[in-house]
Amino acid sequence: MAGARVETLMARMRMLSHRARTGLRKSAVDYFRGDASDWLAFGGLLLTVPAIAFGTLMLPVWFSPSALVLPIVAGGLLLRPASLLALYAASAAALIVEALVLGPYTEGPARVTPGTVLVVAACGFFGLVIAQFRSRVGVPWRRGGTMLFDLRERIRVQSKLPALPRGWHREMALRPAGGQSFSGDFVVAARTNGGRTLEIVLTDVSGKGMEAGSRALLLSGAFGGLLGALPPHGFLPAANGYLLRQDWEEGFATSIHLVLDLESGDYELLSAGHLPALQLSAGTGRWQEKSGEGPLLGVYDGAEFTAARGNLRRGDVLMLFTDGLVETADREISEGIDRLTGEADRYVAAGWEGAAWHLIEKVAKDVNDDRALLLIRRSA
């Protein structure tokens, strides 16, 4: 009995010891990944404070008391608010020591003046505001730029058009508003039906630039998953339901869905409140508007979308675009479309290579709106 009790006691002690080690290890990992993940930067910046103070006292020609703003500014970009406050305390102590050793600022130059204190305090205030914002967002400054770059590249990859068989040419150009990196216009595309069918969806999210970029990223991923997984006539109703479930205050979007048979050239266009597509007939040299019927996405449930049908013969061109390309405050959409087709006629003889980008440059270079243009051409 005594031996069994001893074994039970030893087992409990081992279990408690294991739990204690596991808890300590988890706490250490959480600490160094969380509140102390900036310990290396904090230690380095903390060491620069006495170094700057020493340089100010010993080499006043090379070091100014206001040089303490350097670790303060760097701390605002790199440190968490708690670590930043500790750095501020060290900087304030260094400033006090400098003032005591150098003497009153009225007795000579290179001393701690009220202006020096004001500059250091102002830099500290703005650094703390930046650090609190980063802490609230949860993205470190040194990784935030990388994350935004990855998001931008993800949108670009999702908008990449698939390769087409011989005899077909496609190209796309997208220009965000104001030269920003994020756009409310996006494209998702896929070859379905064993590669015979090309499906392209061009969407214009409400808003522009950074305002619409986050919604465009979410929708491009969702639309990319829906495209090809549903029958062509089921895509826009499913996309409409998805937008309604998001319950955004400004959650509507326009979209045009092209379903093209790459063998016969027959196509269907389904539209959700989007501008019509334009088809250039190689036989007549004229542009013709092609558009289905349907309401905006995200407005009401149970929306129905009617397709427009056509055929791309050899030499024909089909153009899809967003309103930023043809509509401005002082220009009607019809006038913008006339200007777009007039510029596009220049490429009939010269060839369409690079035409999408150049058309945006010619028609809507300085427009403060997102612009997207897609060209599909069947070789003659």
TrEMBL record:
Pfam families: SpoIIE
Source organism: Streptomyces subrutilus
TM regions (residue ranges): 39-63, 84-106, 112-133
Superkingdom per UniProt: Bacteria
Keywords for this protein: Hydrolase, Membrane, Transmembrane, Transmembrane helix
The keyword Transmembrane helix appears for this protein: yes
One Gene Ontology MF term: phosphatase activity
Sequence ranges assigned to domain PPM-type phosphatase in this UniProt record: 169-378
UniProt keyword Membrane present: yes
SMART domains the record matches: PP2C_SIG
Protein name: Membrane protein
